[in-house]
Structure formats: structure tokens, C-alpha cells
């Protein structure tokens, strides 16, 4: 399998090149050249397999000739060493809980597989992972790469604008993880990282690799867990899958899974008030804009980076995209109200991101009385207890892994939002 740019302006490359490059030379994002559906026998095997088995089957299908099943299986076994339960919440709705990894957010899935893929494909040349984060990505990436030989992680976050738990998860690891508190906004962090990747002189001295959600190494593993839903494949009228979306990496992976043969009827692109994609599906006009802060802050994205892949998947044909994806958006007030209602009526505790996905699913199921649906829960509610606790009027216990991170000493480097300062730090 070769990997092509969404802009079709640079040559198709093998997986290893796309993995280390991040973006294609023409500025586009890599995605598969062809979508060959999984053979029926593989789909059958997937229905009774666990996540490691599923990941091995789907990964081998996508990376045929580039990594063997014998190498892939232990790799995913090491990465996906936590449960991903599919839990029934109403007579027609299920939740896929993606938040049982070490940082208690779904980004663990992508980051942990990516770390091992990079390590598998390197020859021992020291590698620097440079990443900007508004919170969840940085903690997942730092955790995933902690202790990986010949690899250094530099993670930039806006000082004072990540949660206490998120900062602890990035800044308390030490060793090969450098946490950098930037005196600026998330946009400043992202600008600095972009500038570094465009800096040929710096890249002569340091082998830089990105780890953001546009990277194939993170996108690919997200395709795996969608196939857990194959167990519900006998659903009448096809399954509806609601995905809480920010940069749309998660949803894009779902669309890829559908192309590979996962029987999903439609996806719901559920967002907070940063609703550029739902607005596009409604009006046909794509208008990125500055992001607005919400209670579901991992989805505060005004210019979703994976939208380019979604468009390319449908050859820029909005009517085709509309057949597969419906969009919907919710205000903070709705989200908080729903966290309270769901807890009171069904005893199920949602985090703000999962609540948005659930609201999106509920809306879709109300419009289609025969359908069955699944929503993806992307963060442990304790990770957002600042929002969840006042909503339900109770305290939420921290999972031990998060409590331990909070108790460890932190070492962040303070950095002004200036490029020369970053260069000095990365070259050190
Ligand atoms: C990153 C994140 C999202 C958004 O995922 P995208 O792939 O960027 O759309 C949703 N929920 C949580 C908790 C996240 O950390």
C-alpha cells in the first residue's frame, strides 16, 4: 500500500516515509492510495476478536508488506494494554469507552501505537518529537514516549491554560520528556512548532518528527477500535455512530473504517459551539474561524486539521459526505445539563466531550426510530471534574494513575513565545 497526499501534488510514498514526515511536501496530509475492503473472513474473525486481535487484522491489512503480523501483534499488545469496553446505556444506545488508557483520554490509543511504530521503524538515530498541545495530546504523547530509547519529546503548552491534571501528566515524567510552559496561547505554541518544522537549518541538526493529530501514526490506530462495533453489526437499519469532534482525526478514522467494510449507517459529527464542520454540512460553505473556549476544551478547534482528509475521502463532493455524516453542535449549558440528567436518570457519568457525543446520538436516534447507535466517550469524567462535579453536585474520585501524577513533583521549562528561544532549547 502506498500513501498519497490529499492535495495530490506530491508522489505516493511508503508508510515509513509518511509516518516520519507528518505532512506531505505539497502541504497536504497523507491518506491511503486505495481502500480495499477487508475480506469477509477477516470481518468474521474481527467480530469475536479482542482489541489486540482486531488491531492486528486491520493493521496488517492497511500496512501489508510494510510490517509483518509477527511484528505488529506484540507492538499493539504493548500499546493497547487497557480495556476498551462497549457498554449498553439505553435500549438502543451503547457507549464505546476509549478513556481507560494511562492518561484517561482516547489520545492514548493513537499516541501509544505511534510511539511503538516510530521505534519499530527507526535505526537508532536520535529522534525529537516536537508537539504543541492544549492539554490532552501533550499528556498522551508524553506518557506514550516516556522511556522510549533514542527519543526525546518536547511538548509545548500554554502556561496556565491546561488543567492541573494535564500539566501534572506532562511535567512530572522527566527523563526523555521536556515539558515547556509557553508564555502565550495554544495558537502561539502551534505557531512555534510549525516554524520549527519549516526550518531547514534546524532540521539539519535535529531529526524532528511531529506527533499531532494529522500524523498517520496516530490516525491509523484510531481505525482499529471502530471495528469493536462490528459486534453490533446485526443492528437494523445500520448503526449510527456519534463522534465528539475537534480536529476530526477520530471521525476521519471512523470514515476510513467504513470504507474498509465496517457496517456503519451514518456518523454524527458532534461538536461544541466550535461548529465549522456541522455548519459546512448545513450550508456547503467551509469557514474556519478562531476557536472559542468551552467546557469540552479538547474540542475547541476553529480550523480542524483533519477536515482536509474528510474532504479528500469524498472527492470534495458534499452530497456524498452528507450521506455518511450528519453534523450537530451543542452549547455549554446543554452539555452541563445533560451530564446532570444522564447521571440522575441512568447513573452513567459523562465527561463534557462524551456528553456532546451522547447528545448528538440522542438527536439522531430520535429522528430514526428503528436505528441503534453508539457514541464514543473520549475522556474519563474525573479528568474534567471542574465541570462534572458542580453539574452533579458530588465529588468524583480521581483514578489512581491521575492521583499519582498530581502527587509527583513537576519540572517545566518556562519559555517566552519566541522562536529563537525554542531553537536554543531544541538544539540543546
Ligand atoms: C482530542 C479530543 C477530542 C477530539 O478529537 P479529534 O480527533 O481532534 O476530533 C475529543 N475528546 C477528547 C477528550 C479529546 O482529548
Provide an overview of this structure:
With 428 residues, the chain is of the alpha/beta class. It has a domain of 199 residues: Rossmann fold, CATH 3.40.50. Helix content is 44%, strand content 16%. It contains 19 helices and 13 strands. It has a 6-stranded mixed β-sheet with strand order 3-4-12-9-10-11. A 5-stranded parallel β-sheet has the order 8-5-6-7-13, sandwiched between helices. It has a two-stranded antiparallel sheet with strand order 1-2. Helix 3 packs across helix 10. The two termini are 38 Å apart.
Strand order of the largest sheet: 3-4-12-9-10-11
Q: Report the sheet with the most strands, covering strand number, pairing sense and barrel closure.
A: 6 strands, mixed
Tell me how many strands there are: 13
Number of helices, where a helix is a run of at least 4 consecutive DSSP H or I residues? 19
Which hetero ligands occur in this complex? pyridoxal-5'-phosphate
Distance between the termini: 38 Å
Structural class, from secondary structure content?
alpha/beta
Which runs of at least 5 residues are low in confidence (pLDDT < 50)?
none
The overall pLDDT, averaged over residues, is 93
Helix content: 40-55%
Please give the CATH class of the domain at 82-105 and 218-392.
Alpha Beta
Query: What is the CATH topology classification name of the domain at 82-105 and 218-392?
Result: Rossmann fold
Concise summary:
By secondary structure, the protein is an alpha/beta fold. Helices cover 44% and strands 16% of the residues.
Amino acid at each position: 500500500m502506498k500513501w498519497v497526499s490529499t492535495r495530490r501534488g506530491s508522489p505516493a510514498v511508503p508508510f515509513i516515509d509518511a509516518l516520519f514526515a507528518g505532512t506531505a511536501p505539497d502541504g497536504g496530509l497523507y491518506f491511503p492510495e486505495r481502500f480495499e475492503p477487508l475480506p469477509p473472513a477477516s470481518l468474521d474473525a474481527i467480530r469475536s476478536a479482542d482489541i489486540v486481535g482486531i488491531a492486528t487484522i486491520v493493521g496488517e491489512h492497511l500496512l501489508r508488506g510494510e510490517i509483518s503480523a509477527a511484528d505488529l501483534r506484540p507492538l499493539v499488545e504493548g500499546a493497547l494494554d487497557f480495556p476498551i469496553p462497549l457498554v449498553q446505556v439505553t435500549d438502543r444506545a451503547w457507549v464505546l469507552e476509549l478513556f481507560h488508557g494511562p492518561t484517561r483520554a482516547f489520545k492514548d490509543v493513537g499516541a501509544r501505537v505511534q510511539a511503538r511504530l516510530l521505534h519499530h521503524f527507526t535505526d537508532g538515530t536520535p529522534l525529537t518529537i516536537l508537539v504543541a498541545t492544549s492539554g490532552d495530546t501533550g499528556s498522551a504523547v508524553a506518557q506514550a514516549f516516556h522511556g522510549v530509547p533514542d527519543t526525546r519529546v518536547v511538548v509545548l503548552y500554554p502556561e496556565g491554560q491546561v488543567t492541573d491534571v494535564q500539566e501534572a501528566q506532562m511535567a512530572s515524567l522527566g527523563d526523555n520528556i521536556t515539558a515547556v510552559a509557553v508564555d502565550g496561547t495554544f495558537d502561539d505554541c502551534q505557531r512555534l512548532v510549525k516554524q520549527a518544522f519549516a526550518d531547514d537549518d534546524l532540521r539539519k541538526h535535529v531529526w524532528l518528527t511531529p506527533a499531532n493529530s494529522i500524523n498517520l501514526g496516530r490516525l491509523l490506530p484510531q481505525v482499529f477500535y471502530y471495528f469493536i462495533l462490528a459486534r453490533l453489526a446485526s443492528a437494523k437499519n445500520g448503526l449510527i455512530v456519534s463522534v465528539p469532534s475537534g480536529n476530526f482525526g477520530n471521525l476521519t478514522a471512523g470514515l476510513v473504517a467504513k470504507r474498509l467494510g465496517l457496517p456503519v449507517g451514518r456518523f454524527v459529527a458532534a461538536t461544541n459551539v466550535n461548529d465549522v464542520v456541522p455548519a459546512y454540512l448545513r450550508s456547503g460553505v467551509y469557514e474556519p474561524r478562531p476557536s472559542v473556549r468551552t467546557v469540552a476544551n479538547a474540542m475547541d478547534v476553529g480550523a480542524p486539521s483533519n477536515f482536509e482528509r474528510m474532504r479528500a475521502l469524498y472527492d470534495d463532493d458534499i452530497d456524498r459526505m452528507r450521506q455518511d455524516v450528519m453534523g450537530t453542535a451543542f452549547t455549554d449549558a446543554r452539555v452541563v445539563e445533560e451530564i446532570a440528567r444522564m447521571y440522575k436518570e441512568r447513573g452513567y457519568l459523562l465527561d463534557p466531550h462524551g456528553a456532546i457525543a451522547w447528545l448528538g446520538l440522542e438527536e439522531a436516534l430520535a429522528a430514526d426510530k428503528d436505528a441503534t447507535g453508539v457514541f464514543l466517550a473520549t475522556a474519563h469524567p474525573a479528568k474534567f471534574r471542574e465541570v462534572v462535579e458542580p453539574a452533579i453536585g458530588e465529588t468524583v474520585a480521581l483514578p489512581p494513575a491521575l492521583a499519582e501524577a498530581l502527587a509527583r513533583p513537576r519540572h517545566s521549562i518556562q519559555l517566552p513565545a519566541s522562536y529563537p528561544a525554542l531553537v536554543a532549547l531544541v538544539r540543546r
